[in-house]
Amino acid sequence: MLDFEGVTPDEFVEYKGRPIVRQGDEIFYGDMSEKYYVYMLIMSEKKSPKGDVDIPDTIMVQLLDSKTKKPEKQKITHGLAEAFEFAEAWIRYNDRD
Length: 97
What we know:
Layout: E1 13-15, E2 18-23, E3 26-29, E4 36-47, E5 54-65, E6 71-78, H1 80-94
Antiparallel strand pairs: 1-2, 2-3, 3-4, 4-5, 5-6
């Protein structure tokens, strides 16, 4: 688990106004104090066209309930763009409850 002690909100990278934290192959998206946040696990990578950088390829995306930490939804995506689009849609839709 990530240790957020001593980290201020302005130190987070954001996507559509929500914080992103990456540690190794794990990515957390959203505010963990809200009702839901998203956990992503990079399952495989591929080389960039020049072959000099590893790019996340297969990613497991889970919408987690902040209180129970249990997954409400899960999807396997190909690429970070697709993973973040699912993540944002899930959080936005479920925030309306």
